[in-house]
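REQUEST
  id: r-88c1
  op: predict_structure
  target: LuxR family two component transcriptional regulator
  payload:
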Amino acid sequence: MADAPVRVVIVDDHSIFRSGLRADLDASIDVVGEAADAASAVEVIEATRPDVVLLDVHLPAGRGAASSAPDAAGGEAVIRGAAPVVPTTRFLALSVSDAAEDVVRVIRAGARGYITKGSSGAEVSRAVHAVAEGDAVFSPRLAGFVLDAFGAAVGETAATSDELDRLSAREQEVMRLIARGYAYKEVAAELFISMKTVESHVSAVLRKLQLSSRYELTAWASERRLL
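RESPONSE
  id: r-88c1
  status: 200
  body:
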Protein backbone atom coordinates (compact mmCIF):
# COMPACT_ATOMS: atom_id res chain seq x y z
CA MET A 1 0.00 0.00 0.00
CA ALA A 2 1.35 3.41 -0.92
CA ASP A 3 2.20 5.80 1.88
CA ALA A 4 -0.47 8.38 2.65
CA PRO A 5 0.32 11.85 1.26
CA VAL A 6 1.72 14.49 3.61
CA ARG A 7 -1.05 16.97 4.38
CA VAL A 8 0.18 20.57 4.05
CA VAL A 9 -1.13 24.09 4.61
CA ILE A 10 0.59 26.93 2.72
CA VAL A 11 0.75 30.30 4.48
CA ASP A 12 1.95 33.25 2.39
CA ASP A 13 0.47 36.67 1.68
CA HIS A 14 1.08 36.42 -2.09
CA SER A 15 -1.59 34.37 -3.88
CA ILE A 16 0.56 33.93 -6.98
CA PHE A 17 3.34 32.40 -4.91
CA ARG A 18 0.88 30.06 -3.16
CA SER A 19 -0.51 28.91 -6.51
CA GLY A 20 2.95 28.37 -7.98
CA LEU A 21 4.17 26.47 -4.94
CA ARG A 22 1.09 24.25 -4.91
CA ALA A 23 1.74 23.39 -8.57
CA ASP A 24 5.45 22.67 -7.96
CA LEU A 25 5.03 20.31 -5.00
CA ASP A 26 5.13 16.64 -5.93
CA ALA A 27 2.18 14.24 -5.93
CA SER A 28 3.04 12.84 -2.48
CA ILE A 29 1.96 16.14 -0.89
CA ASP A 30 -1.70 17.07 -0.43
CA VAL A 31 -2.31 20.81 0.04
CA VAL A 32 -5.36 20.90 2.34
CA GLY A 33 -5.52 24.66 2.94
CA GLU A 34 -4.04 28.10 2.34
CA ALA A 35 -3.92 31.38 4.24
CA ALA A 36 -2.67 34.90 3.54
CA ASP A 37 -2.28 36.31 7.06
CA ALA A 38 -1.52 35.18 10.60
CA ALA A 39 -5.08 35.21 11.96
CA SER A 40 -6.61 33.22 9.11
CA ALA A 41 -3.62 30.85 9.14
CA VAL A 42 -4.31 29.83 12.74
CA GLU A 43 -7.97 29.19 11.86
CA VAL A 44 -7.08 27.09 8.80
CA ILE A 45 -4.49 25.07 10.71
CA GLU A 46 -6.91 24.35 13.55
CA ALA A 47 -9.62 23.32 11.06
CA THR A 48 -7.46 21.08 8.84
CA ARG A 49 -4.84 19.81 11.34
CA PRO A 50 -2.13 19.32 8.67
CA ASP A 51 1.09 17.37 9.06
CA VAL A 52 3.23 20.34 7.98
CA VAL A 53 2.69 24.08 7.56
CA LEU A 54 4.80 25.84 4.93
CA LEU A 55 5.05 29.24 6.52
CA ASP A 56 6.33 32.61 5.31
CA VAL A 57 8.16 34.52 8.05
CA HIS A 58 6.80 37.96 7.12
CA LEU A 59 3.01 38.03 7.28
CA PRO A 60 0.29 40.61 7.89
CA ALA A 61 -1.62 40.06 11.13
CA GLY A 62 -5.06 40.03 9.51
CA ARG A 63 -8.48 40.62 11.14
CA GLY A 64 -8.53 44.33 10.29
CA ALA A 65 -5.21 45.11 11.96
CA ALA A 66 -4.10 48.74 11.76
CA SER A 67 -1.40 47.91 9.22
CA SER A 68 -1.62 45.38 6.41
CA ALA A 69 2.14 45.45 5.83
CA PRO A 70 3.92 42.13 6.41
CA ASP A 71 5.28 41.83 9.92
CA ALA A 72 8.52 40.02 10.78
CA ALA A 73 6.75 38.47 13.76
CA GLY A 74 3.84 37.20 11.66
CA GLY A 75 5.25 33.72 11.25
CA GLU A 76 5.94 33.48 14.97
CA ALA A 77 2.35 34.48 15.72
CA VAL A 78 1.08 31.61 13.60
CA ILE A 79 3.25 29.05 15.39
CA ARG A 80 2.48 30.35 18.87
CA GLY A 81 -1.23 30.54 18.07
CA ALA A 82 -1.64 27.14 16.42
CA ALA A 83 0.96 24.87 18.04
CA PRO A 84 -0.76 24.60 21.46
CA VAL A 85 -4.04 23.63 19.76
CA VAL A 86 -2.59 21.32 17.11
CA PRO A 87 0.60 20.00 18.73
CA THR A 88 1.13 17.28 16.11
CA THR A 89 1.56 19.83 13.30
CA ARG A 90 5.12 20.78 12.35
CA PHE A 91 6.17 24.11 10.87
CA LEU A 92 8.65 24.71 8.04
CA ALA A 93 9.57 28.33 7.32
CA LEU A 94 9.79 29.19 3.63
CA SER A 95 10.93 32.77 3.14
CA VAL A 96 12.70 35.13 0.78
CA SER A 97 14.68 36.37 3.79
CA ASP A 98 17.97 34.76 4.75
CA ALA A 99 18.65 37.20 7.60
CA ALA A 100 20.04 35.59 10.73
CA GLU A 101 17.52 37.33 13.00
CA ASP A 102 14.57 35.97 10.99
CA VAL A 103 15.96 32.44 11.02
CA VAL A 104 16.69 32.40 14.74
CA ARG A 105 13.39 34.08 15.66
CA VAL A 106 11.17 31.56 13.88
CA ILE A 107 13.20 28.57 15.08
CA ARG A 108 12.92 29.78 18.67
CA ALA A 109 9.16 30.02 18.14
CA GLY A 110 9.05 26.34 17.24
CA ALA A 111 9.66 25.87 13.50
CA ARG A 112 11.39 22.61 12.55
CA GLY A 113 13.26 24.10 9.64
CA TYR A 114 13.90 27.10 7.43
CA ILE A 115 14.48 27.14 3.68
CA THR A 116 14.54 30.02 1.23
CA LYS A 117 12.15 30.70 -1.65
CA GLY A 118 14.99 30.11 -4.08
CA SER A 119 14.52 26.38 -3.42
CA SER A 120 13.06 24.25 -6.21
CA GLY A 121 9.73 22.45 -5.95
CA ALA A 122 11.59 19.16 -5.52
CA GLU A 123 13.73 20.62 -2.73
CA VAL A 124 10.69 21.97 -0.91
CA SER A 125 8.92 18.63 -1.29
CA ARG A 126 11.89 16.78 0.19
CA ALA A 127 12.03 19.27 3.06
CA VAL A 128 8.32 18.80 3.77
CA HIS A 129 8.75 15.03 3.99
CA ALA A 130 11.79 15.36 6.24
CA VAL A 131 10.01 17.72 8.64
CA ALA A 132 6.91 15.50 8.64
CA GLU A 133 9.13 12.62 9.76
CA GLY A 134 10.56 14.69 12.61
CA ASP A 135 13.83 15.90 11.09
CA ALA A 136 15.11 19.48 11.12
CA VAL A 137 15.84 21.02 7.71
CA PHE A 138 17.79 24.17 6.78
CA SER A 139 19.16 25.68 3.60
CA PRO A 140 22.94 25.12 3.83
CA ARG A 141 24.08 28.65 4.69
CA LEU A 142 21.31 29.09 7.26
CA ALA A 143 22.35 26.16 9.42
CA GLY A 144 25.31 28.17 10.71
CA PHE A 145 23.00 30.85 12.09
CA VAL A 146 21.14 28.26 14.12
CA LEU A 147 24.33 26.64 15.41
CA ASP A 148 25.71 30.01 16.47
CA ALA A 149 22.48 31.08 18.17
CA PHE A 150 21.96 27.89 20.10
CA GLY A 151 25.57 26.93 20.73
CA ALA A 152 25.66 28.84 24.02
CA ALA A 153 22.80 26.71 25.30
CA VAL A 154 24.42 23.35 24.60
CA GLY A 155 24.96 22.56 28.27
CA GLU A 156 21.39 23.40 29.17
CA THR A 157 20.09 21.41 26.21
CA ALA A 158 22.12 18.38 27.22
CA ALA A 159 20.70 18.54 30.73
CA THR A 160 17.16 18.77 29.36
CA SER A 161 17.84 15.82 27.06
CA ASP A 162 18.97 13.76 30.03
CA GLU A 163 15.73 14.59 31.82
CA LEU A 164 13.61 13.78 28.78
CA ASP A 165 15.45 10.47 28.35
CA ARG A 166 13.83 9.36 31.61
CA LEU A 167 10.44 9.51 29.86
CA SER A 168 9.09 7.13 27.24
CA ALA A 169 7.97 8.55 23.88
CA ARG A 170 4.33 8.38 24.96
CA GLU A 171 5.10 10.01 28.31
CA GLN A 172 6.80 12.88 26.47
CA GLU A 173 3.70 13.37 24.30
CA VAL A 174 1.45 13.44 27.36
CA MET A 175 3.86 15.74 29.21
CA ARG A 176 3.83 18.36 26.46
CA LEU A 177 0.04 18.37 26.17
CA ILE A 178 -0.51 18.59 29.92
CA ALA A 179 2.13 21.33 30.19
CA ARG A 180 0.26 23.29 27.48
CA GLY A 181 -2.89 23.23 29.59
CA TYR A 182 -4.81 20.34 28.05
CA ALA A 183 -7.35 18.62 30.32
CA TYR A 184 -6.97 14.86 30.80
CA LYS A 185 -10.04 14.30 28.60
CA GLU A 186 -8.53 16.40 25.81
CA VAL A 187 -5.20 14.54 26.01
CA ALA A 188 -7.06 11.22 25.81
CA ALA A 189 -8.93 12.37 22.69
CA GLU A 190 -5.78 13.80 21.05
CA LEU A 191 -3.73 10.63 21.57
CA PHE A 192 -6.59 8.11 21.25
CA ILE A 193 -6.01 6.61 24.69
CA SER A 194 -8.19 6.32 27.79
CA MET A 195 -8.31 8.90 30.57
CA LYS A 196 -7.06 6.23 32.98
CA THR A 197 -4.00 5.76 30.78
CA VAL A 198 -3.45 9.52 30.70
CA GLU A 199 -3.60 9.67 34.51
CA SER A 200 -1.09 6.82 34.72
CA HIS A 201 1.31 8.57 32.33
CA VAL A 202 1.02 11.90 34.18
CA SER A 203 1.81 10.20 37.48
CA ALA A 204 4.86 8.56 35.92
CA VAL A 205 6.03 11.85 34.39
CA LEU A 206 5.74 13.74 37.68
CA ARG A 207 7.56 10.98 39.54
CA LYS A 208 10.41 10.70 37.03
CA LEU A 209 10.91 14.48 36.86
CA GLN A 210 10.52 14.85 40.64
CA LEU A 211 7.64 17.32 40.32
CA SER A 212 4.55 17.50 42.50
CA SER A 213 1.84 18.99 40.24
CA ARG A 214 0.88 19.81 36.67
CA TYR A 215 1.54 23.48 37.46
CA GLU A 216 5.15 22.67 38.32
CA LEU A 217 5.28 20.62 35.12
CA THR A 218 4.15 23.62 33.06
CA ALA A 219 6.81 25.82 34.66
CA TRP A 220 9.44 23.10 34.10
CA ALA A 221 8.53 22.74 30.41
CA SER A 222 8.33 26.51 29.87
CA GLU A 223 11.81 27.10 31.33
CA ARG A 224 13.19 24.52 28.90
CA ARG A 225 11.22 25.86 25.91
CA LEU A 226 9.35 22.60 25.44
CA LEU A 227 5.89 24.16 25.03
